[in-house]
Amino acid sequence: MTVVSVRQSRIQRLAIKNNNRHILLQVPAAVQKTINILMVGETGVGKTTFINNFANCLTYETLEEAMRHNHKILALIPCSFTQADRFHERHVVTIGEVDANENNEVGQSATQICKSYLFPFGELVIRIMDTPGIGDVRGIEQDKINLENILAFISQPHLKELHGICILLKSNDSRLTVNFNYCLKELLCHLQKDAARNIMFVFTNTRGTSYLPGETYAILKKRLDEIRAVPPHVDISLDRDRIFCFDSEAFRYLMIHKQGIQMQPGSARIFSKSWKISVQVF
Known about the structure:
This protein is of the alpha/beta class. The protein is built from 8 helices and 11 strands. The protein has a single domain, classed as Rossmann fold (3-Layer(aba) Sandwich), CATH 3.40.50.
């Protein structure tokens, strides 16, 4: 078991053990309730980075603080990407141990099976359930298999309630795929209609849209109108209090800094704002 020390007042002590389906932890005796949150989104929307960003934003209030402790960066999910430095040389940036559940090959769907990540927070435990991306590169049949696995995962006896469904979308995405529509409708068909009240929309990559949904908002609204008009006639409102806008690029910058890659002067200042906003929105 790997024990990661984090700020006691923010998240208490987090002990992580990686098995096939869960990241387990040492739950404080004071915990009264577990909040179960399902995350779904298209392949490449950034669920992996979002979860890693979540863990670190709960631990460090500012990017500068995280940079001072970059040897303690939390990498709950291993990830890898390429990054050009200030001299236009390209580097492979990696963090976390190799995980059979994560495929970091370029062009492939990353998360392979559902997995839980648990965060002690005061008298609560927040369980975030990561899922394979919608629009799997292997085709619609793989999407159907992934959806069946998601439904089986959230039907486990210890998951007595599903408190929230976070649908991740990229801002300024000019389309939502047919696969996305299919999977969302199928998911809603297998849940009680009142589950729609607990759906939240999490927009990623929003720095370029001033931390707003951008063009994706209108496209999403049209899709929700279509879902309302056909069986199972689920009414999902797009109220302001259901919308959360993030940009997890500051976590990527933290990885770049840890690896010693030189970026353009002033980069830290730009990403520091992203980090601050993420902390506030979380």
